[in-house]
Amino acid sequence: MKPMPRGRHAAALALVPIVAAVATGRIADAQARLPELIVEAPESLRAVGDQVRRLETERLGAVMRLVGLSVPGDPIRVAVVPEESRLARDLPAWVAAFADPGNDLIVLFPARIGSYPHDSLEMVLHHEAAHILTARAAGGGRLPRWFDEGLASVAERTWGVGNRTRFLRATFFTGQLTVTEIEGLFAGDAASVARAYIISHAIVRDVIRRHGASVVPRILSSVAAGATFDSAFLDATGTTARQAARIFWRSAGGWEEWITFVASPFTLWTAITTLALAAIWRHRLRRAERRREWEMEEAIERELDAWDRDDPPVRRLRSGPDA
What is the pLDDT along the chain (323 residues), one digit of tens a residue? Predict the structure, then answer.
């Protein structure tokens, strides 16, 4: 390799701090465009607080793009609250977290996190942060619960096999709910709220799929400008929210979801595995039944042999009169 001239070598060395400064500046600029999270935790939950601080926040940038925010706004406080606190006691046991957009606050109850819709600490944090960012994009305007929760769910998780299964299970007996009926589910028990979450997620996802990613910023910016949600939704989609729900149930909410679920590799392999296990189980049952029959026959033979040895008349009776 030909050595670099001394002058060029010096110039290259001089560029190193400049390149490093530019890279550092870009990283700092990217971080500045993300919401700042200020985590507060008591001593008893210090480990959980540290875990929250280590969670990746880059996904919040995607949430900002989803809702149409270019500036993250003020820092968001994240309060990690113990289960024995009065606040935790005053709330239903299935409430694992909540967001207070007016006060830029997220409250987490880590002891309650672990099952849908609160699968993990990271998912819950992103979900609640999405509520605050959505409220900022809407200028604090009122949004229906089904749209707010559905949008936060879209921002927080993908629509995979697990969610398809939950959706099909949640709608198997309830049928096609209106947005008003979905809104009412949020006032019910834990099971009703879980159904409301998954159905809202599915409907909002379908609205975005039909009208494009820009539909959400258009709705929220109209609400921020003073429009009601219903009029903002109509202007952005050309249909009412009630009609959008009916369209959803006629397509994605019905046969499309069932076909997608049944035709998925997960479902097919699950069915194949189940059939194979059932065949193995039936084979083992038949073998066990044959083994019991053999054991019974052997036991009878042993009894008869014993009678023959102990009682000759029995032997003559079995052998016939000419024995």
Answer: 545 555 555 544 554 444 444 444 443 444 458 999 999 999 999 999 999 999 988 889 999 999 999 999 999 999 999 999 999 999 999 999 999 999 999 999 999 998 888 889 999 999 999 999 999 999 999 999 999 999 999 998 778 778 888 888 888 877 889 999 999 999 999 999 999 999 999 999 999 999 999 999 999 999 999 999 999 999 999 999 999 999 999 886 655 555 555 545 555 555 566 666 666 767 677 777 777 777 776 767 676 666 656 555 555 555 555 54
Residue ranges per structural domain of the chain: 32-137, 140-263, 270-319
- Who contacts 29 (Cβ-Cβ below 8 Å, separation ≥6)? none
CA distance 270 to 37: 41
| Predicted model pTM | 0.71
Distance of CA 162 to the CA centre of its chain: 7
CA atoms of 303 and 323, how far apart (whole Å): 21
CATH code, residues 32-137: 3.30.2010
